[in-house]
Write a structure and sequence with these properties.
Length: 236
């Protein structure tokens, strides 16, 4: 394999110098198998429910995110680029209170976590990522895979994390990941499958994480404006 972009340029801040060519080549094959970089870049709106706990609406172009958490009677509207937004908590609009910023930060943290569980395979060459080719191994189901290691620098809420990402040798889709709380940990905290990819718009997404599921996954080209402006609940 050669470490070429294949129409999949790395994000600004991707650690190209410390990453290796074989890992980059595998990452590019993953992007192609998912539908290609152009299809991903042109995907506008994504909706999903995270483990039955909360539903998210994401405008990839503007950075607007809506999160509804029924257990808290909460609606978060946040722009992940400029950190502005509004919040409904326990049915009360707290957008004019001194605590707004901390709840917008909470909303951003929810989005960072929940989006990574859905679209991580598209983010193998993100800013702050160092990508290494670990070798070949077998997954829980016995299928062979190429294994990539992701470590992070000055990015996200938990930069000391490490992931091992298993790429199916046949279809080049991510089919399993392992999470390490610290990159020096000898054993993962968990191993989770990525199964049952489905076509959504022009891209493939998987919501099957074994014992947990991402549901209500949808990709759309348009969404009502009030999705990202109204605190009136949509999902409940």
């Amino acid at each position: 394999m050669e470490g070429t972009d294949v129409g999949n340029p790395a994000a600004e801040g991707f650690n190209l110098e410390a990453s290796d060519a074989e890992a980059i080549a595998v990452a590019d094959e993953v992007m192609e198998a998912l539908g290609g970089r152009k299809a991903w870049d042109e995907t506008r709106y994504i909706t999903w429910t995270f483990f039955g706990r909360r539903t998210l609406w994401w405008d990839k172009k503007t950075g607007d995110v809506r999160i509804e958490v029924p257990a808290d009677s909460a609606v978060y509207l946040v722009n992940i680029h400029d950190k502005t937004g509004k919040v409904l908590l326990n049915g009360t609009d707290i957008s004019s209170t001194d605590s707004l910023d901390q709840y917008l930060e909470r909303a951003e943290s929810i989005w960072i976590n929940d989006a990574y569980w859905l679209v991580m395979p598209y983010k193998l060459k993100d800013s702050g990522v160092t990508l290494k080719y670990v070798g070949q191994d077998t997954m829980q189901g016995g299928a062979p895979a190429d294994v990539l290691q992701l470590t992070f620098e000055e990015v996200g809420r938990t930069p000391d994390n490490k992931y091992l990402v298993y790429v199916d040798e046949e279809d080049r889709l991510v089919k399993q990941w392992q999470f390490f709380g610290n990159y020096e940990d000898p054993e993962p905290r968990f191993t989770t499958p990525w199964l049952n990819y489905e076509q959504h718009g022009a891209i493939l997404l998987s919501g099957d994480r074994g014992n947990n599921k991402l549901t209500d996954i949808a990709v759309s080209e348009s969404m009502p404006e009030e999705t990202f402006t109204s605190l009136e609940p949509i999902k409940w």
